[in-house]
Amino acid sequence: MDFIDAIKDVAQHIERLKDSVQTEQAAKTAFVLPLIQALGYKIFDTTEVCPEYIAATPGLKGEKVDYAILINGVPSILIECKFHKNDLAHPKNSSQLFKYFSATQARFSVLTNGIHYWFYTDTEKTHIMDEKPFFEFNILDFNESSINELKKFSREVFNPDEMASCARQLLYKKEINRLISEQFTNPSPDFVKLFAGQVYKGHMVAAVVEKFTEIFKGCLKDYINERINDKIRSAMDIDISDTTKIDVPDPLNTEVIDTIVTTADEMESFYIIKSILRDVIELPRIQYKDTKNYFGVNIDGKAGKTICRLWLNSEKKYIGFLDINNKEVKTPINSLDEIYKFAKILKDRAIFLAKNKIEAEVTEQ
Q1: Count of beta carbons in the 10 Å neighbourhood of residue 340
Q2: 144-171: per-residue pLDDT in tens?
Q3: The overall pTM is greater than 0.85
Q4: With contact defined as beta carbons under 8 Å apart, do 322 and 330 qualify?
Q5: What is the pLDDT of residues 283-342, one digit of tens each?
Q6: Measured distance CA(223)–CA(21) in Å, rounded
Q7: What would the 3-class secondary structure string for 170-211 be?
């Protein structure tokens, strides 16, 4: 079985049981151990996966971490488990793991509630766990990229020395992405000056910076619009001038609504798109609108913020996007898995719609 298939099996198992599991111990057994096993470790061999591993130092006598993954008898990954309905962000959770990390030779630690997994290391000071996780994994909401990162911790390929370098890169990348996102939403004066200084030779007084801040925001919107349009053109390889505007059905038309049946394929496509977009927008904002002719995925339930549309109820299946002129570009797909090919377009479109108040006027096709 491929690694991703093993993880999908664990995800389905957890989805089925999560409402019935009522204790932390049950969550360890039902959620965490299956994932450790999917990573290739022998969960019944205590020389490889040791439960209640003792982390003892002068200030930490006899404290036990839930699981330790051992390599040649030495702890390499510590795993501290919480109840799956608990919020991992509570300071008490990470502080407890912080003590365990300092008391052992482990290079990596994991804080988990059985659904969310936060991975830590010591990028700043040796044997001192970082305050922020360098990698976060959600077993119920993952994509190809996160699976590839998780696989680096599998028994087959895990290398502590190489992973330490990867961890630093992931942590830096995570922080840089956060900073970029902040600047796109609310650019700082220093960031604005960096660009304004290339085109304006006067003094950067407060009034000038304020003026260029608004100009900069407008330029960002235009740039994102153009990038989305270019990617749609190149990905679809279709002449946009041949496309037409599309409409949203009248919600008061009960005759149309009564004939709508949301199929299993449509729901699966919706979950695939949510998985792709989880890194760029809050999941509750991603919604769908099923119509007689197509299945639309939008933001906040607004047709004017349509991310994409799908036609899945006939032999020929299509996915469609709106360009900046609200023209729809459709391209055929042979299977739902091909939706992943449009991940970049979906993310760009979602980011643009989420950060702009303007809604497109669309009509049904």
Answers
A1: 14
A2: 888 989 999 999 999 888 888 788 888 8
A3: no
A4: no
A5: 888 999 998 889 999 998 888 889 999 999 888 899 999 876 677 888 999 989 899 989
A6: 48
A7: HHHHHHHHHHHHHHHHCCCHHHHHHHHHHHCCCCCCHHHHHH
Please tell me the distance from the alpha carbon of residue 28 to that of residue 46, in angstroms, as a whole number: 16
Q: CA distances (Å), 34 to each of 10, 12, 81, 108, in order?
A: 6, 11, 13, 20
Q: Which residue has the tokens 């299993």?
A: 264
CB contact set of 231 (below 8 Å; sequence gap of 6+): 344, 345, 348
> pLDDT for 179-209, tens place per residue?
877 887 788 888 888 888 888 888 888 888 8
Tokens at residue 216, please?
């900069």
Instruction: Give the separation between CA 227 and CA 9, rounded to whole angstroms.
Output: 37
Q: Please, are residues 27 and 113 in contact by the beta-carbon 8 Å criterion?
A: yes
Give dist(CA 300, CA 284) in Å, integer.
8
